[in-house]
Structure formats: C-alpha cells, structure tokens
Design goal:
Oligomer: single chain
Order of helices and strands: HHHHHHHH
Helix content: 40-55%
Strand content: under 5%
Distance between the termini: 48 Å
Shape: globular
C-alpha cells in the first residue's frame, strides 16, 4: 500500500463527528493490494533457528513477578542467578522444558544431567500448580 493510498483511506473516514463510517468501509477494495507484509515478513530468524535446534531461548525479562527458583531442590542462589541470566525466571518455564531445551541449558551452565537427575521439571510443575 502506498502512502497516498493510506492517506486517502484515512481521509475517507474523516469528517463531522456525526459521520459514523466503519473500518470495513475504509478498507473496502484493498483485499487485493499487497501492503508489504507478504514481500518482507517480519521473522525472528534467531528464535526460529533456536526452536528448530532445540536450543533454549529464554525471556528477555520476567513476566510479572519472578518465581523463587531456589524452591526447586538442586537450585542454589548462584545457580538461580545463572538461570536468570539465561532468561529463566518462572516455574512454568522450567515445567515446560523439552529434553533438548534442558540439555541446552545444562550445556550452557556446565551442569550436565542435573535437570533430570534432580527432577527440576517435576518439581516446577508441582510448584507452578501450588502457586
């Protein structure tokens, strides 16, 4: 869609406060126009690559309040901080880890086998359900 087309669409709905034109009428006839999304879609390629490889992709920041990951047996304060640095802040994140993602975290933190051995995923599920 060109800027002029957009201006004409936006201008079409302007007028008196009594004018109650709806969005559908503003967009009528634009179905066949390419507004650029199809030609240049926004794709987070690193996230897609990480998901395809099983690599863990943490959050850039916590969603709401941070969970006390130290409540999971086997996670001490220093390890909790290292998990936070990887973008792990919540029980639900640990609870939904795939084997590949768990292995990726273990490799990043040099704690091979610890997530399964200490039962972090099962513990996180219980803690998630209890909170």
């Amino acid at each position: 869609m060109h800027v002029n087309d957009l201006d004409s669409l936006l201008g079409a709905g302007r007028g008196d406060d009594d004018d109650e034109s709806d969005v559908g009428s503003l967009l009528a006839g634009t179905e066949d126009r390419d507004i650029g999304a199809a030609e240049n879609p926004i794709i987070d390629e690193p996230a897609l690559e990480a998901a395809a490889s099983g690599e863990f992709k943490g959050l850039s920041a916590p969603v709401g309040n941070v969970d006390d990951l130290k409540r999971i047996s086997g996670i001490a304060p220093k390890l909790e901080q290292r998990l936070n640095d990887l973008g792990v802040f919540h029980f639900w994140q640990v609870a939904k880890l795939s084997k590949e993602e768990a292995a990726s975290i273990e490799k990043s933190l040099s704690i091979t086998g610890r997530i399964e051995r200490d039962g972090w995923i099962a513990q996180a599920r219980k803690l998630q359900d209890s909170d």
